[in-house]
Amino acid sequence: AAAAALCDAAAVALVGEGPSAEGAATRARAQVLDLALERGEYTRAARLADGLSQSLAAGELNERALEDVHGPEDPAHDGSPRALFGALAEQSRARVALRAGNLDTARLHAERARIRAASSAAARAHQDRLDAELSAAEQP
Description:
The chain is mainly α.
């Protein structure tokens, strides 16, 4: 929790401080998302992934810094941060629903994630783990 709080604080403190600080803020935001996923904080991860996706669409993120964390934007080679963040948000919502015992909602979010994950190898790896979790939950 302390590491995530520090990354959150760093991201907020660096916003608007110039190109090098913007890169650091972008990296911090992406790393906070990674930490939330590692810790199983899926409600938070969905919010963070949505925020990154929206900021990316608005041109507010330092794309070079994103490449440092998640690789280059190259949909032809399965490297799309836009697809990754969209898929991670839906996968996280699926896991929240799964933890609440709502399999129908979990399946709905998993299907949305699967569509978005098509352009991201990293998102597909997360999707494979989610699909395994769903299969296990569906077994009597």
